[in-house]
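Q: I have 94 residues here and want to know how they pack in 3D. Can you give me a structure?
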Amino acid sequence: MERVVAGRDLVLGYVRALNAIDAAMRVAIPSLARLADVLGLARSHRISRSGHIGTYSYAVHGAGCRFVTGKGTEVDVDFEADGSEILDLWRLRW
């Protein structure tokens, strides 16, 4: 039972961190309609493929982006073609 609770907390923590990143990125880039648009900005060379935006560092890769908070929390997310986020459970660490 403890592992289920720990897993649930891990997923909820990921979602909270992703939401915080989304909010911070929208403040830093007001034209950002959704977090997935970071990919398009990098691919069109309007931002570099890696760098800092606000208090976050980021690195665009393939179908997603890895964000790192100032406290070192890493959130790696892939995006569907429609911009929705994909949660890969294998990216979460116990």
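Q: Anything worth noting?
A: The chain has one domain: 2-91. Helices lie at 2-28, 37-43.
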